[in-house]
## 1
Amino acid sequence: MIRLIFYVFLALLIAIAASWIAAHPGEMILNWQGWELRTPFAVIISLFILYTAFLLLFFKFISSFKNINFFKSPARLAQRRKEGLQELNLGWSALTLEDRAAALKHGRRAKNLLANESGPLFLLAKAETPSGRMQYLKQLEKHSDTSAWVKKSRFKALMAENNSSAALLTLHEILKDYPYSRWAQRKIFDLQARLGKWNNARTSLKIAAKSEAITASEDKHFQAVLNYNQAVERHAAADKEQALELALSAVKLDPSFIPAALFAVRSLNASDKTSKAKKILAQSWNAAPHPEMAVLFKETMPTETAEERFRRAVKMTLDNESHIESAHLIADTAMQSQHWREAKAALSALVQKGSATTKTYHLLAQLERQQANDQASAEDYMKKAASAAVNAHWSCKKCGTDQQYYLPHCPSCQNFDTVCWASKSSLLD
Ligand SMILES: [Zn+2]
């Protein structure tokens, strides 16, 4: 309504101005190079209005023309997208072939063609070096479809910095989004165990076993490791009964887990539970013979005669008499009871098989001295011992660092359950 009044008022003003100009026609004279143009003032005003109107129309036309923008036409957009996806595929192919430079080149082209999409950023982040990756990770975090991968990368970076607590939080975030991720389930158990959070680790282990993120035998072994570590803690807290119970359940779960067997037999020996100790010894020797177990074997029956001990050793090693630790135990107990022939046979078998170690030659030298006081032969064996294979020992299967004894976490690489009993050659295999 106001606008209408304004237009009526404007028309009235124009009419008044027009009639005034008509009443005062006047004349404009233009002189140029001898040319003379005489025209009424009203014509000049009309021409000026027409020219302004033309200019306005022209600029309007130009601006509407700009809005069409050829780059945004659907056909052009589809073409750019097609080219972008091609670049993306070329980039991933290059990355599979470990040609990172080509992957980065195609990734950057794809990024130009597929602006605001996560695909090219994902490729670039994968192809970049860890330091160059950060800029793309930040951009990728805004895309929900790649956030899981970003979190996994963050987890890896935190682990590399040894920031286990922050890494554990990131794992929980991932597991919230992907509760059935086997990778996350396994890692969360590993990290909780690495941090010594035994009860949390036990819960995570159950979840991982249920979804088959770990095998049934791994589940049993890990349960044994958790029980053993809790047994050690209970023992330190003077709760020996609970400690023994945990150690025994660890042996039951995995008789080949040497630390639990050693712990159980040591505890049983200390409380004179001889028959139970003998049972655990036999069971564990069958699964994984160990020299420290041979020492505990003697301590289980401290009052028996040398002959009785030799007979007991033969009986216990019946199922794996060719194992190097069995042969060493037989030779040792045979020498104590003067069964020279049996001692020699056990040790010679190891030499013939090529599996003799420093300890084998030491025992052979001892045999030569004790049997016939043959110092020359003993010296020969001692020389052979110097160049023989080293005895099996505790060593980290992840970083290869040797350890004095079993530890739940490797002191060098911090990994959980990687310190194992093995010979150098079997580690290299
Ligand atoms: Zn290690």
## 2
Amino acid sequence: MNHEIMFGVPLFRYHLDSAEIKKIAEEKFTLSQGFPIDETPGGWDCTVKSDFDNSQANLYTKYYDGVMKQFGKDVGLESGTAMMHESWLNYYVKGMNQEEHDHLPSFYSGVHYIKYDPRVHEAVHFLNPLFQIYSCTYSLTSKICRGEDALNAHPFSRQFIIPDVKEGDVIIFPSFLRHRVNKSETDVPRITCSFNINTIKGSTRRVFSQ
Ligand SMILES: [Fe+2]
């Protein structure tokens, strides 16, 4: 192999017991006989139920102080902590999905899997931002090998990656990274809390005001 990979896309992983926020989310879910939270913006081309319209109220940030503190350290902040700027809940049952999207202009974004059973649910699909430069090679290789073999030969050329997660896991990724949630195949609710990190204490690069 006569090439090297110059840059990579980071994925940060944490774990946070989701019992308390799950209770709150399930109560919201139950109180309204199905879908209390239907504030998904009209511009979204998906069927997920969310309270994104109220995301700037940042109702759920209080659960993530520890994660933000650790994440701040992990991205190299010498002082201060990463600041969660927006947070919202997402509900999926059978047939519900979220289309491919990104979270620009935020810096980083995250997902907390607060009700999630890996036996019936599927995690987010991250799309390879460099896929176009590999797709030609992949197509050519596929003519020679089985598709699976081609993927094995060039793991960095995969079109998408589905991270292995379990309930309570928190993943944080760069906001530019496109991702989607495939249509749910089960009636067992899948609940996540998503968030954006727009301001980082100690940084003057980007500070949004309301
Ligand atoms: Fe997203």
## 3
Amino acid sequence: MADPDLDLLQTALKRRWSRGPSQKAKPYVHAFSAAERRGTKITAKVVGNHGTYTVSIQGDTQGVTSACSCYIGKHGHCHHCEALAITFLDDPSAFKIIKLKQAKEVHDLTDVRAYLDSVTWNHTRLRTDRCVVLLRNWLQGYEVFPWELSRFLPTYRVWY
Ligand SMILES: [Zn+2]
């Protein structure tokens, strides 16, 4: 079955990580757990030198946005992100597909977290830089604050 999200993500990943795994990334390829895909975003966990890291990559038509919780991975320029991309390109079926939640389906805080999982960086309402930066910080932990996201998110005006 055609899956435009999958196509878009694979194209973006190939463009960003066009060469085979670097020496540093190699040990992490296929070493991920909790591998999931939501639309054009993949997330997974991997055990590194200083604990378990959460790694995520979002693809869009402009390229990729990646992040990792390791100490050099904040902006996604680490070998865990590279390894995640290569792992996914090698076997996308190993990533569990999580259905995206629509804003209109959000009724409580659990839904808010599920919804945040599905928010893409190029979401039209999140275009301004400030919103994107705040959302990104937000997504690090999903603690769900800024007034519980304006009481379950009718709009995103809370982020400034
Ligand atoms: Zn990392």
## 4
Amino acid sequence: MTPDSATLPTPTTKDYSAAMRLWHWANWLLVSAQLITILFQRVIVKAKTAVPEYQELMSREGISLSEKQARSLTRVISERIWDWHVYIGLALAGLWLLRLLLELRGPSPRRFGARLTAALRRYRLAPPARGENAGRNLFSLLTYLLFYIMLAVIALTGLGLTYHHDFEWLDRIEHDLEEIHNATMYGIIAFFVVHLVGVVWAELTSEKGLVSRMISGSQERE
Ligand code: HEM
Ligand code: HEM
């Protein structure tokens, strides 16, 4: 309807390979599943807070449970959720390695490093009319970079927490690993929100077809 200046062609390649698209949606699934395990652990099941309920239930059966005994029973449930967290976590750590491989083996113009360098250069050299576009593109790539760093941190600390019993030096830093792992989760949640808002916004304004290109890889434009 209007000659839309915002739809000036974006000079980056926005078409993702099949491997990269598969990676993206598998990553989305696993990160969401990890967040759901935490939702269950901390909000829905909250096993620790069930100690008095276990004690009351048992006392109705004439069994007296000490707090310690009740706590070990509640732990059965939370351990099951943690087991799922670790399985999904191991898959996520594998996916992170796969992303590294795609970066190292992929065609050079599609590599993340090359796109980021090109976006930086474009941002510095863009004429004022294109500056906003270049800035937005650079910002989105920087959020992806941050996410990849956070994914590495959460995977490495998660692996540390999984295997800390096997290595004394990991055992000694277990508490720090927990703190870092936990804090990184909030960063990932923040990325999720910003990413979703950004992608939907771009889809509705300047980048029609962006989401379907991440699904089907087609280059269709309206
Ligand atoms: C998006 C990804 C992930 C999120 C949001 C996440 C979140 C969390 C949170 C909030 C905790 C509790 C930490 C605390 O005690 O304060 C935790 C614990 C843990 N996470 Fe993750 N994590 C993720 C990925 C991973 C990965 C990749 C692994 C590696 C296998 C992993 C393994 C573990 C282990 C072993 C624990 C300790 C469980 C326990 O206390 O028994 N996590 N995770
Ligand atoms: C846990 C959730 C998600 C994570 C961690 C995530 C992560 C990422 C990452 C890292 C990239 C950049 C890939 C690269 O260029 O190297 C990306 C791109 C993209 N994501 Fe997601 N994503 C998530 C959910 C979603 C959802 C729900 C949608 C659709 C509504 C979506 C749509 C897209 C699109 C369209 C792109 C390409 C954007 C562009 O070319 O700048 N993502 N995502």
